[in-house]
Every structure is written in C-alpha cells, then in structure tokens.
Amino acid sequence: MLLAGCGSSRFLAPIKEAGKTRKAGPVTEFYVVQPGDTLYKIAFEHGLDYRDLAAWNGIADVNFIRSGERLRLLPPRKPVPATANGLRNAPPADVSQAAIDETEAVAAWIWPARGSLLENFDEATGNKGIDIAGKLGNPILAAAAGKVVYAGEGLRGYGKLIIIKHNQATLSAYAHHSRMLVSEGQAVAQGQKIGEMGDSDTDRVKLHFEIRRFGRPQNPLAYLPKS
C-alpha cells in the first residue's frame, strides 16, 4: 500500500510501545497530576474522554489543572461536589455518537506524512494507530485543522508527542518527532507543518499516528483518503 505517492510499502513487525495496549493490571482509580500534564494528555494516556475526566473531578475549565492534584479516573459513586477553588462541576459528558452534531465532524482528513505503512491499526493486538516510515527530518503535517492541546514527552513509548483537538469529540496524535514546531494552545491549519519525523522513544525513524473519538481509538485508514 502506497501512502502519499511514496515508494513500495513494507510491513514489519511491531517495533515499540507507542499505541500498544500494555498487559492488563489492577485498575488505577486515581492519578496525581505531574508538572507539564494537561487534562487531554491524561485522558489520552488512560483511554478516556477528557470531558468524562472533567465531569468526574468537578473541573469546569478543562485547560486548568494543578500539579499535585489527585484526579479520579473512574466514575464516582456520588455526584462530585464543587472544587476547592469554587468552580462548579462540569456537565456530565454524553459519549453517545448521537450526542455530537454531525456538523462538528471533520470534513476531510489528509495524510500527516509521506512514507510507507509499517504497521496497521489492529484492535486485536492493541495497536491504536498506524506507523508510517520516513527519513529523519521529514515534515509531519496536521491531518486536520484544530488546536494543539498537548506537546511534550510525558507519555512513555510516544517520544515527542503532539495532540490536536479538532472538535469536542475528536483528537489526533503524532508521536516520535525529532523536533516539534508548535506549542500548546496554538491553532493549526490543515496541512500545516507541526514537526519533523524522528525516532524519539523508538528504535527507527517513523510517525505513529492516532485518531480518537470520545477517547476511543479509531482506525485512521477509515478517515484518511485512499492512496
């Protein structure tokens, strides 16, 4: 399968941890916010919808969390009271597909990089995205317009990671940059160069790309244009 007009594709075995489901262990009920964390990053790491995370913890402003704060990762048994700083609870998130107006859907996606497909999305093996091969420094593009909600190295196995919010339901993620060219809070246009391909936290140069709706991984090939 050729992507964005590049050479012959190569299908290789899984290489590293980005996008892979780890071995099941005890369910973690709470998470302590670390310096540099955002609500979007925490939700992404734990496979949650950021709006659920906000509702369960009485967070009214999803752009504001404190380092050292303890966040609930499971639904509370009772309604969450107002937070200590007086903020009212965020409204509960409705994660049904019908809850999002179709007008909010991303109209069209573009490929985030040129290269051959290394690994496909596979729920059975826990691969949450696709891997695209390339050369060090190759441009990585925003697959759709949106706002950068995370840019950092705080998720093990993803290296230098950028997460873009496209609407209330949809995020895209771009891992293993050698260089990130955007910062949190920045609006980006579709096709804008957001970084350069690299091998941060993996053993070869590649882009690991994910699309998530309501916190759940989607098959990017169902959204990206056919090559």
> How far is it from the N-terminal to the C-terminal residue, by CA?
8 Å
Order of H and E elements = EHHEEEEEEEEEEE
* CATH H-level homologous superfamily name of the domain at 103-222: Glucose Permease (Domain IIA)
Radius of gyration from CA coordinates: 18 Å
The first-level CATH class name of the domain at 103-222:
Mainly Beta
Beta-strand share of residues = 25-35%
- Bin the helical content: under 10%
Largest beta-sheet characterization: 10 strands, antiparallel
- Number of helices, counting only DSSP H or I runs of 4 residues or more: 2
Would you identify the CATH architecture of the domain at 103-222?
Distorted Sandwich
Taking pLDDT < 50 over at least 5 consecutive residues as the criterion, the unreliable ranges are 4-16, 21-25, 84-103
- Given the C-alpha coordinates, what overall shape results? globular
| Overall pLDDT level | 83
Structural class: mainly beta
CATH fold annotation of the domain at 103-222: Glucose Permease (Domain IIA)
Description:
The structure is a single chain. The radius of gyration is 18 Å and the shape is globular. The protein has 227 residues and is mostly beta strands. The chain has helices at residues 39-45, 50-56, and strands at 30-32, 70-72, 117-119, 130-133, 139-141, 146-152, 160-165, 170-180, 187-188, 193-197, 206-213, 216-218. The strands form 2 sheets. Strands 3, 4, 5, 6, 7, 8, 9, 10, 11 and 12 form a 10-stranded antiparallel sheet that branches. A two-stranded antiparallel ribbon has the order 1-2. A hairpin with a 2-residue loop joins strand 11 (206-213) and strand 12. It has a domain at 103-222: Glucose Permease (Domain IIA). It has 2 helices and 12 strands; from the N terminus they run βααβββββββββββ.
